[in-house]
Give the backbone structure.
Amino acid sequence: MLRGNESVAYAFKLARIDVFPMFPITPSTLVPERISKFIADGELDAEFIPLESEHSAISAAIGASLKGARVGTATASQGLALMHEILFIASGMRLPIVMGIGNRALSAPINIWCDHQDTMAERDAGWLQFYAESNQEGLDLILMAFKISEDKRVLLPSMVGLDAFVLTHTMEPVDVPEQEEIDEFIGKKKPEYLTLDANNPATFGAFGSPSHYMEFKYAQYLAMKNASVVIDEVFSEFTSKFGRKYSKINEEMMDDADIVFITLGSCTGTAREFIKMKRKEGKKIGLLKITVFRPFPKEEIRKALKGKKVVAVIDRNISFGFGGAVYGEVAAAMNGMDESPKIVDFIVGLGGRDITFNTFEEVLSIAEKAMNEEVDEINWIDVDKEAVEKEEII
Amino acid sequence: MKEITRGAVVKDAGNSVVNKTGSWRTFKPIINYEKCIRCMICWIYCPEPSIYKEDGKDYDAPKEPIKKLPVPVIDYDYCKGCGICVNECPVKAIDFVKEVK
Amino acid sequence: MKDEWLFAPGHGMCAGCVVPALVKHILAIAGKNTFVVNSTGCLEVATTEYPRTSWKVPWVHVAFENSAAVASGIEAAMKKFGEEGNIICFAGDGGTADIGMQALSGMVERGHDVLYVMYDNEAYMNTGIQRSGATPYGAWTTTSEVGKANPIGNLRPKKPVADIIAAHKAAYVATVNLAFFQDFKKKVEKAMKVKGPRFLHAIVTCPTGWRADPSKGIEIMRLATETGIFPLWENENGGKKRITYRPKKFKPVKEYFKLQSRFRHLSDDIIEKIQEDVDRWWKEHSE
């Protein structure tokens, strides 16, 4: 039995990280605590750097990675937001750093509970993004993220999101692979590219003029495309070695479905049980879970949604002035489909508000209505709209 | 075709020498070796760096024994003509003349 | 025979900028087994325009404010791999005294084996002469403008960064001035020998930002110390400051100011006030 944060810590240990730079933040703090203990007990031979901010933690991660170290770190919410500037530099320098995220709401008001605002705000940072449904997925995805990020065709950093508290602090049974199995699966070899080396002095982080800058961005764009291929390879290798199946999107009960719920992260479990219950009542609902958000699995989603009538996107984030981020991306993925389903967005579970069967009842009723008539494009669920309408400007 | 490397890494250390910054110069320092006492202060302070040490035996010198010492030589490919060497020379052995191009 | 400096010409630093001279000497003393972390600033921008570089040692730039943190990561990786080598940060006064202060403080407090060099030209020169925390009282910059309502310019005293780092009990802290070359060399050599966090505060003339004749850079720096404005000192582990150069006869601060148009607006009263401040510092640091 492991908490989600422990899954991440065990994955870092199994990956034999060389350096672990960190700064504590709720709800991911247990990751560094466990790593500290692994090191103290002599179970992990790594350098632990307790930095004075997340900004410095990710900066130290870049320094260590440039020196050829395998680097892991963990953060959440404000910490990730503080890293924002440096996230783009890590991907621009093409460094395979892997980071565990305890997905948590962003201030203000300050809130320590779950939503996906923190990672969604970083979706353009050039990092691969994975979202775990369970602690097992958290562990497996971190391990696979190293193998994918370090692939020469990719060389981009990865972040793996685990929902705050729901996963990070909740005990679940987790199958922890044997060290030898992981050594064989990801291995630990010296980087096959230039690192900081006195015998081979190179300049890293040079100034890019308009004459060259765009080519480097195009190279990152291609690396993300390559990542899409590499992810499939690594997922299938993982399945053949460890038995657990992974794919960029997970389709369940989709064959005859008219309505499709699209989810990320831990609320998938609630959605699954809800759909199973409703299927007994004859409702044709399917479930599409997105595990890989960057690179965005456009093709896979397009294929999965073929012939469906209504797509209900469950967004645990809000892009103000637009709607949910996942909704926007799925809608874009549907561009060019012969007969596009209707797509409706649902903003749910911000700042740790519970996502329950009642939530999904409301989602379903709007989705069913959308089968035959126009409905609002963006729907906030479980929110006291009346109270906000009477908002006092004080 | 442009040279594009992973993450903009530059592997040819010191390849900025292809930029001949001597073209920036409007005034040109000229070392008067008959006066130069080989103190190397100009070599110390040249920021580019575009003053190098050479064997002094083939250069004029104020006194014969000084010829044994290394001599500062200005590399005009890079000298931007800032004049620090002119200003710092303790024996005023460096002339500063308008660049003719 | 051309000298093998570890810093190559052909860069875009201004004519008369003293920073490359500082870098070439520090690298010459540190040697080839040196890893440089450079904060965003003139030195970084002007020496590494892709696909060219002036650096002959491994060099990295990540951002403006985080060189000390990047260096911490490099040092940790070297520890893990059992590698030996020098790590040197070069950052301007803005990248050190202001935006990089937190990362620097953390790096020093944690005790990383890194030499951090602040090249101090007393303003954000790369962005066009904006005041920094290291801009001295009375200096004109483009964000401490001088006019009828403010005849002084920058109204605050210079942040004592070297003192702040010394208060961390850093292994070695020194102020250095290339114009005092033997003192400079001795201190850099010492900094390379000491283990742990080390900090050098180097004054460097920016002829562009100081509104000075490019040929006078070293002369102005010499006057900074001869007038007592930029004292040369060192200390170890937060111990007592050791003054390494005490002018036999101090020159008036006015001599330092008159070569720089950034101080041209100062009235005699203000100059007198600055002179008193300098005199007081030396009185407090008398033998």
